[in-house]
Amino acid sequence: MLDILYDDGPCLVVNKPSGLLTQAPAGIDSLEIQVKQFFRAREGKPADANVYLGLPHRLDRPVSGAIVFARHVRAAQRLSKQFEDRTISKSYWAFVEGIVTPEEGTWRDFLHKRHGMAQAEVVAEDHPAAKHAVLHYRVLWQGPIGAWLEIELETGRTHQIRIQGASRGHAVVGDSQYGSVLPFGDPALDERDRPIALHARQLGFRHPMTNESVEVAAPLPSTWEALHLPRELVG
């Protein structure tokens, strides 16, 4: 069952569960497949009917949160342009290991996506494949096992939040790929299906057909309850 956060005209915003691919090769379940099934059912189309679905952006498999889909080409193009022009507002919540100081700041690095691998690394500025990566954070709360951060991305690089945090000793909790030593979610799950404590909390954009401002907030998944965040701050 899709957790629908916003549904208007050609725009659908869904709260993506962790452990599910945004897109996948044929034969593998994905959020894209589930959203197409949703539209087929709503529009009374057969199960094998072709359905156009635009994906202006993606979330990593272990990440949860708000993601927008477009039902027709024009809407997809206009939303994609907003992402390209960085007029989209996005914020993430991350729970990371260690005490983060200062409590507000900017992380700047040069990143490289390793060839043929879904993994990024910090490299020197003069690396031939280096891409500048910038994010802004503020600490919402510090606890005994780590810090709860609100993050805004200035750039959108592969695994950017995950590698920038990990390179500073602040791996996202549960993210064993980047060195987290703390468990998160159901330990019985296959490693590929396990969540990490990274959530696309807020998404803001202009409706591609009406130009009206849209602001969507995605509730946290239940896995975050184990972090014992202050209830008055979660909202």
UniProtKB/TrEMBL annotation:
<dbReference type="Pfam" id="PF00849">
    <property type="entry name" value="PseudoU_synth_2"/>
</dbReference>
<dbReference type="GO" id="GO:0003723">
    <property type="term" value="F:RNA binding"/>
</dbReference>
<dbReference type="GO" id="GO:0160140">
    <property type="term" value="F:23S rRNA pseudouridine(1911/1915/1917) synthase activity"/>
</dbReference>
<dbReference type="InterPro" id="IPR006145">
    <property type="entry name" value="PsdUridine_synth_RsuA/RluA"/>
</dbReference>
<dbReference type="InterPro" id="IPR020103">
    <property type="entry name" value="PsdUridine_synth_cat_dom_sf"/>
</dbReference>
<dbReference type="GO" id="GO:0001522">
    <property type="term" value="P:pseudouridine synthesis"/>
</dbReference>
<keyword id="KW-0413">Isomerase</keyword>
<feature type="domain" description="Pseudouridine synthase RsuA/RluA-like">
    <location>
        <begin position="12"/>
        <end position="164"/>
    </location>
</feature>
<dbReference type="InterPro" id="IPR050188">
    <property type="entry name" value="RluA_PseudoU_synthase"/>
</dbReference>
<dbReference type="GO" id="GO:0006396">
    <property type="term" value="P:RNA processing"/>
</dbReference>
<protein>
    <submittedName>
        <fullName>Ribosomal large subunit pseudouridine synthase D</fullName>
        <ecNumber>5.4.99.23</ecNumber>
    </submittedName>
</protein>
